[in-house]
Automatic annotation (TrEMBL):
An example molecular function term from Gene Ontology annotations: transmembrane signaling receptor activity
Domain Neurotransmitter-gated ion-channel ligand-binding positions: 44-229
Membrane topology: Multi-pass membrane protein
GO cellular component: postsynaptic membrane
Similarity comment: family membership: Belongs to the ligand-gated ion channel (TC 1.A.9) family.
Protein name: 5-hydroxytryptamine (serotonin) receptor 3A
Function as written in the Swiss-Prot or TrEMBL entry: Forms serotonin (5-hydroxytryptamine/5-HT3)-activated cation-selective channel complexes, which when activated cause fast, depolarizing responses in neurons.
Subcellular compartments: Postsynaptic cell membrane
Keyword Glycoprotein: yes
Source species: Salarias fasciatus (Jewelled blenny)
Pfam families: Neur_chan_LBD, Neur_chan_memb
Signal peptide: 1-19
Amino acid sequence: SKVQKLNLFCLWSVSVCFSKLTCEEGHSGPTYESMQAVFDLKPFRPAVNLSNPTIANISFTLYAVLGVNEKTQILSTFLWLRLYWHNEFLIWDPEECDGATRISLPVKHLWSPDIIVYEFVDDDVSQACPYVYVNHTGHIRWDRMLRLVSACNLEIFSFPFDVQNCTFTFGSYMVSPALTFKEMSGNSKRYLEASGEWELVDILGETSILQFGIDEWDIITFWVVIKRRPVLYVVNLLIPSSFLMLIDILSFYLPPHSVDRASFKMTLILGYTVFLLIMNDLLPSTANGTPIIGIYFSVCLALMVISLLETVIITNVLHHSSMKYQEVPNWVRVVVLKHINSLTVGVFVRNCNNLAKSLDVILCNPSFPVLGISAMPELSQICQYLGDLRAHLTSLQKESELQDQWCHVGYVLDFLLFRIYLLLITFYALVIISMWCVWISQS
């Protein structure tokens, strides 16, 4: 019956607790028969007086950061977990046991504290440690490996210069830290310094009591602060993007009237788009927001499109004189050409026009005698041809002047828009660099 089992347990526990484990001559450590009585009490907390709490001390060393999944907000780490507690049944006299002060026992045969990690979101697939170390005073140390897959609120806005602060909450009925948080942080930094993408900044923590109704749980909350090493992303993302932007800026020095600058810029935009598609897997993504580096790439692409639009505008201005005798508007003259000297005319056109005028004066003036001979009909026809030639040269001169005016308008606008584009890019770069510098200094 239940009463008989309870009485048997009470008698058994009293006989065990008030008598130490026995040893036999020639054996280093307690006998198996004396420990078997302790093994049979595994379901019960190892305390002589059940009103006395069994305190479990816990510490861990962060050995590796296995992965960070920004989309699912999960942090995978590998911990070396160490537990301490006192078993009042496992006590012996070393002098009677051939000087043995510590033995190892299977953990499956002993009572162990119930340690719960509240952020755990997956099964522990790490290798189990089957043995514990037991001191002759009854103090037990259990070293185990723990692959902890935990939920963590990951902030990726400052990627790749982000710092993550994840929480590990260990709970039990009676638990306290075995080492100070500073010691745990120092041990973790010593083992984690050779690990890949992440480096440990600090481990902080506090102990508190969590209450569920009438039940109270002791919990230890650890804040593990880790920082991403940004060198990989700076080399693979930021530097190539900066080079492409530099090429886009230098393309403004191509002569817009003799080189197809628009085709060059379109090819550059296409190359930048392919670059973003290739590098897309390196960028983190969450449903909550977009990292600033993604905004940086989008703005860079937008600036390239603006640069292409500027080239289209300048090309249109330079070819605006293709319509005959289209004058430059007055407001353009005032705004754009106010400080530009009068345009020069081509030497060839000017000389030809002067020659035509001279011939016209000499040959086509009826009152001007030519070697004392009156003007003949052939001379009149020549004068007509010269008049047509002068009209044609005048038209060419006017077109040349208009073309030169529109070219000057185009070059002035190109100079102005290029300077505005440089100021825009400089301001944008300073904002991005200052923001990242602030985050780096704060971390």
